[in-house]
Amino acid sequence: MSEPVGEPVFWTDDSAVCEPLAHGADVSAHFHDFGQLRYAASGALVTTTQVGTWVAPASRITWVPPFHVHSSRSYGETDVRLLRVPAELAERLPTEPSVFVASALMREAYLALLSEHDPADSPRADLLLEVVIAELARARREPLRLPEPSDTRLKAVTDLLHADPASPATLAELGHRTGSSERTLSRLFGSELSMSFRQWRTLLRIQRALLELGGGASVTDTAIRLGWANPSSFIEAFTDLVGQTPGHYRTTARATRE
């Protein structure tokens, strides 16, 4: 998934608990006049906006501010819990979509708020929501936003990479397939996405690796499946971008699922 498709729809409300989403299920582009937190209690949720794509396995919570158009795709059978955030509280959170590392306290308050059916304006519900917002304010923000292009020439290339992140094709080869020169594409990667072709493809692969590892795949299998020449180069790239080794990330994700 590379960006919201179709005409975005204004949704006035969301149920707190969606029906479980099958692997690969899409939620079409839409927006709200309130903020929304999105947590996958199982599986993983990919959220795409007009400016980038964020990956959130079960150890992460996604924040979408009011009026930001977004669409989604699930990875694995995904149990999504949605939390509406009123405008006055939304002002305390980032003005752009973000993904946060979810602390144990945040997850427990979040799930209690959605599963125990207190009235939305009850003192207990207010307190639990305040805990969630306070924990988000101090949580580490996930840096792995994958920027998405608007230029059609560049989008033709990134669409090919989204479809096959492991592709070893060079930028010249991808340009030949899409009808653009390597020089033009290289310039567009820098001017529109503020990174090189190699950096963008590495970031895409790391995002997919989060999904693979979160689903229980081994580090070696993930490295091979996503196009790294060897596991050590994958471990180095993953650690540089995520801030922890893929093995540690996999162990943490598994503990969260259990």
Architecture blueprint of SSEs:
Layout: E1 9-10, E2 26-31, E3 35-48, E4 52-57, E5 60-64, E6 70-85, H1 87-90, E7 98-101, H2 104-115, H3 123-138, E8 146-147, H4 152-163, H5 171-178, H6 182-193, H7 197-214, H8 219-225, H9 231-242, H10 246-257
Parallel strand pairs: 1-2
Antiparallel strand pairs: 2-6, 3-4, 3-5, 3-6, 4-8, 5-7
Helix pairs in contact: 2-3, 4-5, 5-6, 7-9, 7-10
Word description of this protein:
The protein has 258 residues and is α+β, with helices and mostly antiparallel strands. It has helices at residues 87-90, 104-115, 123-138, 152-163, 171-178, 182-193, 197-214, 219-225, 231-242, 246-257; strands spanning 9-10, 26-31, 35-48, 52-57, 60-64, 70-85, 98-101, 146-147. Strands 1, 2, 3, 4, 5, 6, 7 and 8 form an eight-stranded mixed sheet that branches. Helix 2 (104-115) packs antiparallel against helix 3, helix 7 crosses helix 9 and helix 7 packs parallel to helix 10. It is globular and about 60 Å long.
